Amino acid sequence: MEFNKQDALNQGLAKWIIKQKKLLNISAISEETGVSRTQLNRVLEGKADFNNGHFNKLFPVLKDWFGLTEEQLIELVQDAAKILAFWNQKGGVGKTTCCNSIAGVLTDQGKKVLVMDCDYQGNSTSLWNIDKQAFPMEIMDALEDTQGELIRDCIVQLHDISEQLYILPSYGKLNNLETSEKLTTKQKLESFKNIVNKIRFEYDYILMDMRPDMYGLFSEAPLGAAEWVFLPVEASLFSFDGLSRSVSYLKERKKDNPLLKIGGAFFNRTKPGKNQMEQIENYALGAEREGIYVFESIIRDSVGIQKAFTYRYDPTVFLNKFNEGEIADFPKTQLEPIKNAKSDFMELTTELLNRIQNG
């Protein structure tokens, strides 16, 4: 996704100040520039970033004092997050479990990942059992904040799962997006893109778990923020027929977001057996004839996924926790399905990353 140069400069300046904080006299900077110490300290704590007004006051002074250049600031944020959406116009195909299991693989590889729950039903939020009382702010609060000051307060770090995993929860208020009086129609359509641009320099990957909406705000707005969209499908004729309609719709969305790439479809909840594998091969050939990329990696229908998430872990994190002795009440004899699930998602994630890298 292209990003606004000024947004990059604003966030690059925030990163520079955080890196240099031990060498800086915050009181002197505040006095010289007129930017409040409160604002500077919020940036240092990672609770805010700078807007254009702050930048215009700060940059000339820091340039004079330290020889700071715009090129240095751009370099600090050039590795912006990849924005991946998981969507299908058909519900019940496993978008949520796939999205979050891929997030688990990425964090296990040392990547910093944010899962955005873009569905007012809050399936990703429920999957991780987010405590609403402890973390009351949600995605709708961030979307309605046109100043972009609340987004970091809405994000929850899942410390007990992985220091690298974060979620932007949804508790149901998102259902009011279409009728919100705080946003114009244009602001609603651009709301997801706006909050993503505020934080995309702080993560390696942002994964969007979308609801099965078509020709509505709940698909158009998130897809307007995404770089890639991936479609989980089941090996059933009904699911496969919907794939063609989904891809046609995504091609239409590219008119509004020319940077959106259709990453392809992958089969989820597949069952062992010759008949289904032949069915999958036939569906894949049909999809490829229509120009739809189909992943070679498949996700088997496995109780391992459900067992892992029962403990509030994806398969990858579950096995890490088990091996570290943090899960003592699970029989070792029942690990095989979870190992299979982890293996499937590792292969899928590897292929997905290769797909992104090769464009």
TrEMBL record:
Residues 82-260 form the AAA domain. Signal peptide: none annotated. InterPro entries: AAA_dom, DNA_Partitioning_ATPase, P-loop_NTPase. This is AAA domain-containing protein. It comes from the Bacteria. PANTHER family: P-LOOP CONTAINING NUCLEOSIDE TRIPHOSPHATE HYDROLASE, PARA FAMILY PROTEIN CT_582.
